[in-house]
Each structure stands twice: as C-alpha cells, then as structure tokens.
Amino acid sequence: MATAIQEIPLKTIRNDDASLADYAGNVVLVVNVASKCGLTPQYEGLEKLYATYKDRGLVVTGFPANDFGAQEPGTNEEIATFCTTNFAVDFPMFAKLSTVGPDKHPLYAALTSAAPTAQGDAEAFREKLRGYGMTPNPEPEVLWNFEKFLIGRDGNVVARFAPTTAPDDPALIAAIEAELAK
C-alpha cells in the first residue's frame, strides 16, 4: 500500500506521469536542485551517492526549483541537458516545481509537514543569507536549494537535511545506510 506522499502525482523532467510510488520498496532521497547555485556542485556528490547505493535500493531524485535567487531559470529540457552534460546525472530528475510559497507543490507541502526540522547547520546558512540582505525562510519551509528529504522503504519521511549537508556527509550516509539495512 502506497503512502500519501508516494501517491502525489508528479511529472518527470521529460513530462511523463510519475509518482514516488514508482520507487516503492526503495529508500528515496528527494532533493530540490538548481543549476546556478553555489551548492550546484552537490550534483556530483549526489550522482556518486546514487551510483554507490543504487544496487542496494537507494534512489536519488532531483526536483529543480527556481524558488531561491532565480538560480534555476531554465526549462526542463535545458535543465536535463545541463545535468547530463556537466555532472553526468543518471538519477531520476523531475519537472521543475515550486518548493515554497503560494505555488508550493503538494509533494513539498507533504515533505515539510512530515519533517518540519532539518538536521545540519541550517541556522548558520540562515545567518549567511541574512548577511547578503536576504530574509531566509523559517522552519518548516524549505530553506534553500539542495535541501534533502530521506524517505524509508516504507514510504515515510525519516529524515531531513539542511542544504549545506553535503552528499558525503557522515550523518546523511549513516541515515541512508540505516534505512537500506531495513
């Protein structure tokens, strides 16, 4: 039986119908991504994470969003080309969506409701944004690009990580390995 989060309708980056139920029984890492962000190099680490753990049941999923600093201005086609050309992204990518605000996609409404607080040093990142004259989003809203939500094999959100949590961060790796062991 699929969970409510798994049943939310999605579109792939190629505009095919999809949902997270397509990955039922796997551990899924949901990441809002952007092509022109200081954190964009995380694509490389996310792809490495996917390559390392996909045979054990990890699926990394990328959700482009233009919510923060207009750092994902491209079309789905342009984003797909950027990801494959620059980072050889092989993990599933989805159509651009909104992670915050009045147009927030139902997936992100469900994710932030299920995990309202991120692990990692989100407050330091908020201070950095304030230093740039920006007003960061308060919890439970997504703070910035490359925030990560971990969904267990049972389809439930088990952890959330701040944008600055690198894909090779020991806390993220430990959470993934714990879920893969279930």
Notable characteristics:
alpha+beta, 4-stranded mixed beta sheet, two-stranded antiparallel sheet, 182 residues
Write the layout of secondary structure elements.
Layout: H1 4-7, E1 10-11, E2 17-18, E3 27-33, H2 42-53, E4 58-64, H3 76-87, H4 106-114, H5 122-131, E5 148-151, E6 157-161, H6 170-180
Parallel strand pairs: 3-4
Antiparallel strand pairs: 1-2, 3-5, 5-6
The gross shape turns out to be: globular
Low-confidence stretches: none
What spatial order of strands do you see in the largest sheet?
4-3-5-6
Q: What is the mean predicted local confidence, pLDDT?
A: 97
Number of helices: 6
Order of helices and strands: HEEEHEHHHEEH
Give the biggest sheet: 4 strands, mixed
Structural class: alpha+beta
How large a portion of the residues is in β-strands, by DSSP E? Answer: 5-15%
> How many beta-strand segments?
6
Helix content: 25-40%
Question: What Rg do the Cα atoms give?
Answer: 15 Å
> Alpha-carbon distance between the termini?
17 Å
